[in-house]
Amino acid sequence: MTATATAPRHLLSGLVKVRELGIILALVLLVGYTAASNPRFLSGQSIRDILLNTAILAVMAAGQAVVVITRNIDLSVGSVLGLSAFTVATMMSDNPGLPMVVAILVGLAVGGAAGVLNGVLVRYGRVPALVVTLGTLYMFRGVTYSWAGGQQVNADELPRHFLTFANDAVLGIPWLVLIALVVVGGVALLMRNYRVGRELYAMGSSPQAAELAGIKVARNLLGAFILSGALAGLAGVLFAARFGTVDAAAGTGLELNVVAAVVVGGVAVFGGSGTVWGAGLGALLLTVIGSSLTVLDINQFWQQAIVGALIILAICADRLVAVRIARSLRKKDSHV
Amino acid sequence: MTATPGPSRPGPAKLEVRDVTKSFGAVAAVQGVSFPLYAGEAHALVGENGAGKSTIVKMLAGVHRPDTGTLAVDGAEVEFAGPADAKAAGIAVIYQEPTLFPDLSVAENIAMGNQPLTRLRQIDRKAMHANAARLFTRLGVHIDPDRPARGLSIADQQLVEIAKALSSEARVLIMDEPTAALSGVEVDRLFAVTRALRDEGAAIMFISHRFEEITALCQRVTIMRDGRHVCTEPVADLSVDDMIRRMVGRDLSALFPKQDTEIGETVLEVEGLGREGVFRDVSFTVRAGEIVALAGLVGAGRSEVMQAVFGVDRYDTGSVRFLGKPLKAGSPRAAMAAGMALVPEDRRQQGLVMDLSIERNVTLPRSRALARLGLLFGAAERREATSWTSQLQTKLGRLSDPVGTLSGGNQQKVVLAKWLATDPKLLIVDEPTRGIDVGTKAEVHRLMSSLAARGLAVVMVSSELPEVLGMADRIIVLREGHVAARLTRAEATEENVMYAAMGQQVTT
Amino acid sequence: GGTTKDSADNSGAAAQTGASADPNAKLKEGLKIAFLPKQLNNPYTDVEVGGGKVAAGELKGEYKLVGPNDASASSQVSYINTLIQQQQDVIGIAANDPNAVCPSLNQARQAGIKIVAFDSDASKDCRDVFINQATTQGIGESLVKMASELAGGSGEIAILSATPNATNQNAWIEVMKTELAKPENAKLKLVKTAYGNDDDQKSFQEAQGLLQSYPNLKVIVSPTTVGIAAASRYVSSSNYKGKVAITGLGLPNQMREYVKDGTVKKFALWNPADIGYLAAYAGAALASGQISGQQGEKFKAGKLGEYTVGAAGEIVLGPPTEFTAENIDQFNF
Amino acid sequence: MSDLARGGKQKDNAVLEVRRRLATWDSIIVLLTVFVLVVASFSVTNFGTSRNFTFMILDLLPIVLVALPMTFIIVTGEIDLSVASTLGLASSIMGYLWNQGLSIESIIPICVVVGAVLGAINGFLVTGLGLPSLAVTIGTLALYRGLAFVVLGDGAVADFPFTYTGWVTGTIGDGPVPNVLVLILVLAAIFGVILHATPFGRSLFAIGANAQAAHFSGIRVARTKFWLYVVSGAVAGLVGVLWTLRYSSARADNGAGLELAVVAAVLLGGVSIFGGKGSLPGVLAGVVLLAALQNALRLQDVSGQALNIVTGALLVLSVLLPNIATSIRTTWQRRKLRRAATV
Ligand SMILES: Nc1ncnc2c1ncn2[C@@H]1O[C@H](COP(=O)(O)OP(=O)(O)OP(=O)(O)O)[C@@H](O)[C@H]1O
Ligand SMILES: Nc1ncnc2c1ncn2[C@@H]1O[C@H](COP(=O)(O)OP(=O)(O)OP(=O)(O)O)[C@@H](O)[C@H]1O
Ligand SMILES: [Mg+2]
Ligand SMILES: [Mg+2]
Question: What CATH number is given for D48-342 in this structure?
Fold first, then answer.
């Protein structure tokens, strides 16, 4: 029994690793090709730019991945980012003396509150997440617009320490990147090795069974939405620090990028499978695609089309791997 | 199998149902039922389909809250706000329908909720895996703990459910038809494990429509009829006929009224059918008026063969001829048009659309024929549905209710109605009486038998040996995806079939 | 033979503004003047319509501001329809698409509403006058002149524009290309035109891309306020600072920081508030019958003085101002 | 049960049935829509005029047409987010071909066919390769929009013949009925009958609620979904043509963002995002309700920002309110039972 059980175990875990390996492979190919035609693509400044650009998307993708794994979706993240970015930027321009930590906490709080609203409506209102968050996508954006009007917070109104935060580095790694790494790593660990993480997978895999298994579905679901909201809020702070100019439209349409990153990263939209690391890699891949198309000097008009085609390719590749795993399972089971 | 004599129990009940009532809208599912479960005793709950057994289970599990009445654990009244509370009170439940997480590994499924933890409060995967492997050894089954639950056969799912319930080391174990998908070998294993648990002092509640299982395992039985409590008595005091009479409210005639029929010409010819990794070189024919049974152990590939014949699955080699003409592969629509019908084994996933109304489900394969000038009106569907559900004595509220609100057995009747309504020339039934009560089972058998007498060809896949022996004209035994034996009605005995299914020498 | 481009009669039902102008007519009071900019919540736009509001006040009219949150023509059409229903007297519009808004504007004109296009023109036959911030030629020339000065007369330059469809941007870029083709600019090489879609983040990333792709780039010219601000911000925080010059059209308030820290030496703009101001006065003059949009007609525009309607109903505001570290503190918009 | 008793019970059932039907979300939304239209006509100046009616119909034209096939797709449990990009690409191609000198009579069918082909690509990716539709159509959303820019670049083509542009914005005999209303009504009727009164329509609900059971019932699940995507693409292509003619402007960015408005309207109309539930009258009411509210609020000078909030809130409330009503009813029933038991 044990002897037969361990061999497929290696095989399986090997295959599972392949899932993320596919994305890594795609990344390597893309970076390799781009760097071959323009070596400056691998210069320090360029890599720094790519990582900085990825950071915000990756932070949001980590939260989104958790929500998607529970068979839900959070389309409101772009609007939450806008709300949080504007709140924090206004606060910092009014009180230039506030330390960065306060900005981050306020961003997390704003996002978390938005997440609570989403979670409560989904769980206690029994409204499908897509409907709720499509609704709050409009509502949060509307709130930001009504509040901001035509106002814009410009870089010169923001305190210096807030703006330099985006570019300052510890041990050569910019704060932004560090935060993204910690967030993605932390959430990934939580989802993989802790009970609550596995419960979230279970909830996405079979919602009814999760109820019957006595999983605290309400608490977990609320938690997932709060996490996604809070991370979108955090992303808002990072956005404000990085771009320096914030108006009511900040982050408009970003939800589709975030969902795309998660999906490209191999998280199944029907819940229950995929990893947070994958989502982070998905965010990186999307950013690199964008950057390398610019660097390769691809016609502006072709860029969007190529991004779309690459997204579809990535999903196809992921599907291919999944089918392979299923087939190997079937073979292993067969008595024939 | 031998029955353990039922001791008369003193002392407080481990778990007690006190005068509970539960209604769903207009349906009164349970009305004023009380009975105790004692430690060290297995308690059977029997009743017709829709009698309210599963509803009681769900109240004990904290899924439903009783409208009135209470539950008591160790004599103290409790109120369960959800399944977590019941679990915390030491109650483990195997539900009638498997409730696994398809994306998680089997080991995780079993451990969910009480995974072993390392010092950092992380999940200890090694211990989790070992635990699952140990449980499977105890149950004598071979399932890889690291494979995902997706793709497990119904039987394997049921076994994982059992392992899950065992793993929680509960003081009360409630099993809602755990054996419906299992064949004799696995049932015996399950009973051995259950008896051990019982003797260690657990209280067991067991639901089944098979009386031999009840007499083999249980000491006490509670009988329900139409949501009401009929009686609770030691099993030893009641004969099977007594139980049936109290359950149904009248006497039942012979259980397997197989009529002799005139065998007509060949309807179905399956030639060298094979599918990689699942079955190979399966050949057989079925003639009009004949009932052919496919027997075998769970996972022998019976369902897969018939699904390939009907076209819901593909096959790689071989051919299927129907009424003398080759049948298009991989097209259920072509099979239906030619006059085939398949009652699948998994009614929840394959047989019914749970959210659609009963009438829509019954007429789903027939909607084209019911349409006038391409348009379909509710009246035609309703007429058809009314006629078939009443013919099969389906217990239902309104035809427009979602089929998911019916009890398991009544859902099965709806699946049968749906396919009988297509007036097929060949009826394939996969576990036709799984989860069906005795009365209805007799009804279904009578129906199949009389349909065969009228010239219908029937292929029956069944894991229930008495059913196979009682109904079939010929028996084809599959083992590990290929034909192990072909037996006529005269040759077939319980031993014959079992030996062939398990790969031992057939002694004739 | 169906209807093809060549055979088509697409005259439409262009509104007839037969009324002849009376230069001495009195300016009406209580006129309902509505502004429909490309997009709300855009700082540049806000300054523009702010000027319109001041003028409406001076004219004792009713000022109204409506507009979409996205810079799309279709949403503008819905707003035009609403304004028709509300029976405004004057609509000042910065068209997101010169043609898409046309049928609706003509319906408005049929309903007696005067149409003043500003900032970004609508098609000639569906508006009465167009307030041009500066001549297209003038802007194009001055952009090339600034770029040439900053590049020291030779080297690679790139353009960071708004959306690929922006009418005014494309017109300026055309002029720039003609200018660059002249012998005195032969050593300047336009390597690329990138589009930031007037989206801050996208412009930011496009600027990054330009610098990565063209290591020898000397100047980025961004004739849009969003683009120039984003490009300046990126360069000021990267190690390209000091190596690459940024210029174009920008708002002094947004650019002050980068002019002060040396990222930007010089950029230009007209006073956007004056555009709105002039548009309101032109609208009032139209609604009062002082002018009808014919070439040569004259009217008074409050503090800005007298203006003359040019060819094709164009009214030119005046030459743009160049901003440098020396003079930027004198401006607040 | 005797036949007599059954007859009596069935009559009861019929009454209950009617009451149940009336209480469903799609009938509520129809009533709500009528209510909003009536109230707005009386209380909002200029709302009830025939010209405003025309404006409103023109505003909801693209949403309502795209919503018809979208309803089918969502009922089968899938989604198509690429519709707006398909619209944009069709518009670009229309402009390109017009510039090439093709006649408009041949361009229009070409655009519809192009839409159908784009839909077929979605359909193939979803049904042929078994990819999740949400992911696929996010990809093609970017792809098709990108191609639209490739085809037409930054240009806009505007000189379409007035016979056609005028028809789209015009009314029948210069009366109050817009030409396009006829088109909307005909298409809506066709889609409505197909969904609610044909075997095909039945199969869509079955597919959405349980695709495997539908497959076992002889329904060609993959093929059905594939054709739905083709139809969705074709309709989006047609709407691309109408959009271009309405604004007399073929541009690559036409219709950007329309997909969310369409999905919002469909969901507001009571269609379940999980598939298997929904009705076409509900969807039509949803579209009209959104358009009427936006129109009325704009006339009242409510800002676009507030419109966002109203749209979002409406969407959430449309599902939330019926749920709250149900749970109040069940709690109340339970209480009654409890009380009866204790007495
Ligand atoms: N969720 C529900 N909604 C409405 N009615 C329900 C629901 N669950 C059960 N019922 C009804 O309650 C009655 C009892 O059902 P239950 O499932 O308890 O029967 P059962 O005894 O387990 O039958 P079986 O032997 O067929 O499993 C049936 O009439 C059934 O239709
Ligand atoms: N979807 C699936 N994915 C992987 N393996 C499967 C799948 N379906 C069936 N199998 C495997 O194929 C084999 C044959 O299963 P099948 O259901 O045909 O057996 P059966 O004889 O009908 O038994 P049962 O009583 O379980 O229906 C089993 O080993 C089963 O585990
Ligand atoms: Mg049951
Ligand atoms: Mg089977």
Answer: 1.10.3470
